Amino acid sequence: MFTDERHAYILNKIQNNDRVSVSNLSKELRVSEVTIRKDLNFLEGQNLLKRTYGGAVAPLNHVIELGIEEKSEKNIEQKDFISNKASQLIDDGLNIFLDAGTTIQAILPYLNKYKDLNIITYDLEIAYRLSKSKDINTYLLGGYIDTKTKTSMSIEGYDNLEKIHADLSFIGTDAFDQDFVYSTTENKAKIKNRMILNSQKSILLCDSSKFHKKGLYSFNKTDNFDYIITDSSNDELNNYIKLNNIKTL
């Protein structure tokens, strides 16, 4: 296994479990503990984890950017539950911004019953799957293709987005708290923010495991969304939604 592959494995493991141990990683990756320590020291230097005695932990609960393959395997049932609820806000003939990511992708099967939708996105998988539908007009924002997240982003794409207005925007996130919703990159944060600003109603789709996590860039205040649609397993999040009079489904 190459160094980059080990680093990706370690980061994915720490994202799911919040901590890793040198001895376990050494056995799982079949390399020496000396090599694992070097990997952990390097990743700590990139502020991607925090070294502890015998291993490492997630850095202050900050999220890291995972590839689309890793994300697609997480919280599948919650994503389907959330997307089914979100689809109730859709009607024929609407203009809709779809953010990128696997939570947003989960809403696609529920679009088939609607007609004459105009969908604007920068997610390549979403655009490809929607291109097969005769009842949906799909607009893909152009630009550089990020092979890790399978998204298309550029200054030109953002400039085009500024001119487009929609009825609804469905926005995903890897992290949010009581104050802000976060993104792991500046470009994604700018696109998400512009989609929100240029839509009549903005809807945050997020499973409750992302609550109380942080990212590097904030793109909206949490209570500024018209709706927050999530699963019901986090009582603290449910109370936050009620106290701030945020609509949900």
UniProtKB/TrEMBL annotation:
Pfam families: DeoRC, HTH_DeoR. Signal peptide: none annotated. InterPro entries: Carb_Metab_HTH_regulators, DeoR-like_C, DeoR_HTH, NagB/RpiA_transferase-like, Tscrpt_reg_HTH_DeoR_CS, WH-like_DNA-bd_sf, WH_DNA-bd_sf. Residues 3-58 form the HTH deoR-type domain. Keywords: DNA-binding, Transcription, Transcription regulation. One of its GO terms (molecular function) is DNA-binding transcription factor activity. This is HTH deoR-type domain-containing protein.
